[in-house]
Specification:
Elements (H helix, E strand, L loop, with lengths): L9 E5 L7 H11 L3 E5 L2 H6 L2 H7 L13 H15 L3 E6 L5 H4 L9 H24 L3 E11 L13 H23 L2 E7 L13 H11 L7 H12 L10 E4 L10 H8 L1
Helix pairs in contact: 1-9, 4-6, 6-7
């Protein structure tokens, strides 16, 4: 059901690959709530994914390829987006992440630091680059909103999540720090959403992912939050209803983050 929460707003969605992507679900909900969109992903992801289908479902939203680690690509993206919108941008979703060590089956304690730097650049520093280019080009409107997707492995150890744990911690730090400066400058708010494990194409590549998901389901009093529910939450953060929420890491995980143990887990372990 649409409440027109984003009527008249314009946004850029980074990272939609296919229908399993949370970014895909956010884009559809934003469009349903009245937003105009630009969709972006790395050129290789555009070739692998189905983003043109999403474009059609979102009113033929422009699809503009951009490597979020390359400043010139981002300048081109923001320039084209502002031309398309006839002005600035009201919201941005950062849903970008990749662990190179994980993809290559290299353990955390034996990681390649070259791969590690690439992981940080793609998964974390890309947020800083997006915000910096938006800042330099004055692309974000006053009271704009930026949301980046995170995971509780930034605070807790999840074996096999590898250097993505460090990357998510860095992502959250960038959101806090840039959120301060952007808030002072233009009342732009920057937050991260720490979502329940969702079986996206990327998430499925984490060794033991099903175990993460099953454990979180047993621990969370409300159960795991779905990708669709995450999209709903992101819409509220893009809307004017959350104008004074910034620099926060917001847990959207059914209560998992603050549950010490549950009877279901105890019964499962001890019988």
């Amino acid at each position: 059901m649409s409440c027109s929460l984003l009527k008249g707003k314009k946004g850029i969605i980074f990272g939609a690959l296919d229908e399993k992507s949370i970014a895909w679900k956010v884009a559809k909900r934003a469009y349903e709530e009245g937003a105009q969109l630009v969709l972006s992903n790395a050129p290789v992801a555009l070739r692998m994914g189905e983003i043109n289908k999403l474009s059609e479902e979102c009113g033929n939203a422009p699809v503009i390829g951009a490597d979020a680690t390359v400043l010139d690509d981002l300048k081109n993206l923001f320039g084209q987006s502002m031309e398309h919108f006839g002005g600035g941008v009201d919201f941005i979703l950062h849903s970008i992440g990749m662990s190179v060590n994980m993809r290559k089956g290299i353990d955390y304690h034996n990681m390649s630091y070259v791969h590690n730097w690439k992981t940080f650049d793609i998964s974390s520093i890309s947020l800083h680059k997006i915000l910096r280019v938006a800042w330099d080009m004055d692309a974000l409107n006053e009271w704009g909103s930026v949301v980046a997707l995170s995971y509780i492995a930034a605070q807790r150890v999840f074996p096999n999540y590898n250097e993505m744990s460090d990357a998510k911690a860095l992502l959250e730090s960038i959101a806090r720090n840039f959120g301060y400066y952007y808030g002072v400058k233009k009342k732009v708010r920057v937050n991260t959403v720490s979502q329940s494990p969702v079986k996206t194409t990327a998430g499925s590549g984490v060794k033991g992912f099903e175990g993460f998901q099953d454990y979180a389901e047993k621990m969370s009093p409300l159960g795991n939050a779905t990708g669709e529910a995450c999209a709903d939450y992101c819409i509220t953060l893009f809307s004017d209803l959350t104008r004074y929420v910034t620099m926060q890491n917001l847990f959207h995980d059914g209560g998992f983050s603050f549950t010490g143990v549950s009877p279901t887990v105890i019964e499962h372990v001890y019988g």
